[in-house]
Design a protein that fits this description.
heterodimer; A: 507 residues; mainly alpha; two-stranded antiparallel ribbon; 75% helix; globular; B: 480 residues; 20 helices; 2 strands; 1% strand
Chain lengths: 507, 480
């Protein structure tokens, strides 16, 4: 059994173990979940280091040399359509698998106090993670789509049962919108398969088969909207604020941190599969995502509920991911992938912190907090770091992402694109407004509620996930080289496809 | 002669079994409690299922090519046998509050079930119009009796009445269409007719009549009107059987007469079937959204599912047949799992409304789990079999180049997810509030556990292991 299959199967195995454990053994259930995600974290670090080692021998700039898939596991699976169990990763998938492992490990730590129907909670959570790992590892479109749906559906129960507020409504809205998106994706996959006519669902085979440009012209937006729904693309982002605000801590962490990245990742694959369509529609999606970035930030300014602020800031930040992808420029797309990683870490950090602070103050409204630095300095510092990463402070991961996106987008040779870029770059200011506003409101000044004086700072179990996330945010911000190399080599085939398409489209 | 009889040994043995079951209650001195009848029926059918792999369904033409059991027909027959076993077990007379099946008539009840299965077996093997029609009537008449078998209950009687009227009507349409076809071709053999038909207005009219007649059997919109009331009024195991086995037989019939006879009409058939599919899916889904009685809910869900199945019929070739056969198998087990839970709950508590399932996940976690998996499978969520099934149906339409139909299907799958999730919402999410109580723990008999267990395992395994889709593909490539 290969490394990737092991990574996918461990959470699934843990699901079965948890289902067999009696309901009362809450501690045992948590330990099983922690062990499974811990092993996966270890394996994903090994995968990351090994992959970095692999590309260290390659020549300097990777844009010209494409690196083939690694850790390939390929078996004939279902039927005569050529559905295969085909796993394989490139640098981007490796980075995303690592992100997933980190976030779920931290998520389990952050849910350590979970009490209500614990067994089912962790079973569904780990099932979800199985799907996420699968999506990033799959190279066969059928398998990819299968895991994609596995990753989306448990969310319904997770939010509906353990959430807060109007949870049944939020859960249903989220599930239906995302499944509506996947209805578009399944159409896309089948059209690609039959138009390519290579008798295989393998992504690289379909990408090489050259889908007719006339098909790409209508299929590209369908698939991009399909994945974009999960990626928070305006105007199909509306599931995100409600869903994230209602979800329990670990689920928000995972959903905003990793699942929205599935959308970005899918969009990247769409560009890879349909480069001509991407060239036709790139600018259109840049405009939509500009709305995303601004809309998300402006709404975040008005909200006072911490979860809604973070959810809308996710809409804004994920907009930057899709904006970067839409530019179809190597530097900006690199920035977009870095943004996926950085945003994953910082949103996970935010939602973990919100869960912990809510557990103490029993409010999520920033108007009812103030001066919390005095009673919970550790949580406060962690929140600061997350906030600074969000507004793109140099030294943290968010900066690397934003700068690359802006540079890449500005390099596009037309006034319109440059104006859009200037507009998007200006959004940094609106982002700073809401982030600095809630940081000051919550942590500085005198203690607003005297009751809060009795509160305690983070416990050991809580410090573990926060430390990991803060450390990674800073590490990726100060030493981005390894990340850039990972992404650079994996973007090469996409860029090569785009280049070919560009030449083909010249009159 | 003997060889000819050996060809239909499966049906002969079934007949023998039917009469054995009929006579059990006659020969026993005391009044039976029905357990013996259930055991004999289920055991006999199981034996037949095992024997079918040992040669009771030879691929051989008999009686002057009127009767042929091809690979696809063999798969259908095995599905009928499996559905029969599960339905017999669902009728197991345990401790119960309401009669889901009539205990004092269990012999007749199960015997009629077997007769209906015999009809289905003849139907899928028939290669000639007269036998096809006789087979169809043999399917329908016992089912009418089964629907109305709780004769003291008004609902059941009403359901039976509706079923009689609509069956008679649809048989009339079908017969009229077939007689036109016979008039044009001058032969009853399916292969002979297909060769002689040409495109004329009369052929199109015959096609419309035949499709109308068959449309009733598979409850395609707008011929579905009998479905909800009949499903609601019939005893639950009968509803389960109607919704799976009888529908599978209907699709076999559909494929035989529509794809087999009217191949010459090519595009017209495709257009008609795709319109019918779109209507059926959309209407079934939209009405299912508003149902709260689980039997009615499953009735509309099964109408929508018939619409999905018709997507596969658009493709006349092997991929289409594969997808339909495979999806029928998936649908059979998923629907039986759902009906299994409904039967168990209805027998123990008399409750059939989904709002009564409040808190099922806490009081009866296993039942809730089975129901959830069944709902997910019907909605087409991986890794359950419904996902692969729907994917194949869509692939069949996509190979034909009918991308719009794929899109309609995919959107409908999303709509259907909404109402399947509502069932899950009642079982898992909602908490007891004023006026509504949690459902109490339910004692489930071993027979019901067998049904639920087998269906659940089937739902999971069929979608993951490659053998099942492979069987369907191999069978479909050589035809009925």
């Amino acid at each position: 059994m290969g490394l990737l299959t092991t990574i996918i199967l461990i959470p699934l195995l843990a699901v079965f173990v948890i289902v067999l454990l009696p309901d009362r053994q809450k501690q045992a259930i948590k330990w099983v979940a922690l062990a499974a995600t811990g092993i996966d974290l270890g394996l994903s670090i090994y995968l990351l280091v090994d992959y970095l080692h692999l590309i260290s021998g390659l020549p300097g700039s990777g844009t010209s040399t494409a690196l083939s898939l690694q850790y390939v596991e390929r078996h004939v699976w279902l039927g005569r359509l050529g559905i295969e169990y085909f796993l394989g990763v490139d640098g981007i998938s490796v980075l995303m698998i690592f992100l997933t492992a980190v976030v779920i490990f931290c998520g389990v730590c952050a849910s350590w106090k979970h009490e209500y129907r614990t067994k089912e909670f962790f079973a569904f959570l780990l099932l979800l993670v199985t799907g996420v790992f699968g999506v990033f590892a799959a190279h066969d479109l059928f398998l990819f789509f299968l895991f994609y749906e596995v990753a989306v559906l448990p969310m319904y129960v997770l939010i509906g049962l353990w959430g807060t507020g109007p949870k049944e409504y939020s859960a249903m809205k989220l599930t239906l919108m995302l499944m509506g998106g996947s209805a578009l994706i399944v159409v896309g996959i089948l059209v690609l398969y039959f138009q390519a006519g290579v008798g295989s669902f393998s992504m690289s085979a379909i990408a090489q088969a050259k889908i007719p440009a006339s098909t790409q012209a209508w299929l590209f937006p369908i698939m991009f909207f399909g994945f974009g729904t999960l990626g928070g693309l305006w105007p199909f982002h509306t599931w995100s604020p409600d869903g994230h605000a209602s979800a329990p801590t670990a689920v928000s962490m995972l959903h905003a941190g990793v699942l929205m990245k599935l959308g970005g990742y899918g969009c990247l694959k769409t560009i890879y599969l349909m480069p001509e369509g991407a060239l036709m529609w790139g600018t259109f999606f840049m405009v939509l995502t500009t709305v995303n970035i601004f809309y998300g930030a402006l709404v975040a300014i008005q909200k006072t509920d911490l979860k809604y602020i973070t959810a809308y800031s996710s809409v804004s930040h994920c907009g930057l991911v899709l904006f970067g992808l839409g530019t179809l420029n190597a530097t900006a797309m690199q920035g977009a992938v870095v943004q996926m990683f950085a945003h994953g870490l910082m949103t996970a950090l935010f939602f973990a912190l919100i869960g912990m602070i809510y557990g103490r103050t029993h409010t999520r409204y920033i108007t009812e907090m103030g001066g919390l630095f005095k009673v919970m300095p550790f949580l406060g510092v962690a929140y600061m770091v997350g906030g600074f990463a969000g507004l793109g402070l140099p030294g943290l991961a968010g900066f690397i992402a934003e700068v690359q996106v802006f540079i890449g987008a500005f390099a596009l040779n037309s006034i319109g694109h440059r104006l859009l870029t200037i507009l998007v770059a200006a959004s940094v200011v609106t982002t700073a407004v809401y982030i600095l506003r809630f940081l000051t409101r919550m942590f500085y000044g005198p203690l607003q509620n005297p009751e809060h004086a009795k509160l305690t700072d983070a416990t050991f179990v809580e410090r573990v996930p926060l430390t990991i996330l803060v450390f990674l945010l800073a590490f990726a911000g100060m030493f981005p080289g390894w990340m850039i190399r990972l992404i650079e080599y994996s973007l090469a085939p996409v860029m090569a496809n785009l280049e070919q398409a560009r030449l083909a489209m010249l009159p | 002669m003997l060889e000819q009889l050996a060809t239909i040994s499966n049906e002969l043995l079934l007949t023998l079994l039917a009469f054995t079951v009929f006579s059990i209650s006659l020969v026993s001195l005391k009044k039976t409690d029905g357990k013996a009848e259930v055991l004999v029926t289920a055991g006999g059918l199981l034996a037949l299922l095992v024997l079918s792999f040992a040669g009771t369904m030879p691929h051989r033409a008999a009686f002057g090519d009127v009767y042929v059991t091809g690979p696809v027909a063999a798969i259908f027959k095995r599905l009928f046998l499996a559905a029969g076993i599960l339905m017999a077990l669902l009728s197991w007379p345990g401790k119960r509050k309401t009669d889901v099946a009539p205990f004092h008539h269990l012999g007749e009840y199960l015997g009629l079930l077997l007769l209906s299965i015999i009809g289905m077996c003849f139907l899928v093997s028939a290669m000639e119009l007269a036998l096809l029609y006789v087979g169809l009537e043999l399917v329908t008449i016992p089912l009418i009796l089964l629907v109305a078998i709780n004769r003291h209950e008004l609902r059941s009687a009403e359901a039976g009445m509706k079923y009689v009227l609509f069956s008679a009507m649809s048989s009339g349409l079908l017969l009229y269409g077939l007689s036109l076809v016979y008039g044009m071709a001058g032969t009853l053999s399916l292969a002979g007719i297909a060769a002689k038909l040409t495109w004329t207005p009369l052929t199109v009219m015959a096609l419309a009549l035949v499709m109308g007649g068959v449309g009733f059997k598979i409850s395609a919109v707008p011929f579905h009107l009998w479905t909800p009331d009949t499903y609601e009024g019939a005893p639950v195991p009968v509803t389960a059987f109607l919704s799976v086995a009888s529908k599978a037989a209907g699709f076999a019939l559909f494929y035989k007469v529509v794809a087999g006879l009217f191949g010459v009409l090519g595009p017209s058939v495709v257009v008609m079937v795709s319109i019918l599919a779109t209507l059926t899916m959309t209407f079934g889904n939209l009405v299912a959204l508003q149902q709260t009685n689980l039997k009615r809910f499953l009735a509309f869900s099964s109408i929508a599912q018939a619409g999905f199945l018709m997507i596969g019929l658009v493709h006349g070739g092997p991929l289409g047949l594969t997808s339909v056969v495979f999806y029928l198998a998936v649908y059979l087990f998923s629907n039986l799992a759902a009906f299994g839970v409904v039967t168990v709950v209805s027998a123990a508590t008399g409750k059939e409304d989904m709002r009564d399932y409040l808190g099922l996940s806490e009081s009866n976690p296993k039942l809730a789990l089975v129901m959830m998996l069944a709902m997910f499978s019907l909605a087409g969520i991986p890794p359950l079999a419904g996902f692969l099934g729907k994917f194949y149906l869509f692939a069949a339409a996509a190979e034909k180049g009918m991308y719009w139909l794929v899109f309609v299907g995919a959107v409908n799958a999303t709509i259907s997810l909404y109402y399947y999730l509502i069932v899950i919402k009642w079982m898992y999410l909602l908490k007891a509030a004023e006026g509504r109580q949690r459902i109490e723990p339910i004692e489930v008999s071993w027979a019901s556990w067998v049904v639920l267990g087998v269906s659940t395992v089937a739902m999971i395994v069929i979608g993951i292991l490659p053998q099942f889709i492979h069987w369907a593909e191999v069978a479909a490539s050589s035809g009925f």
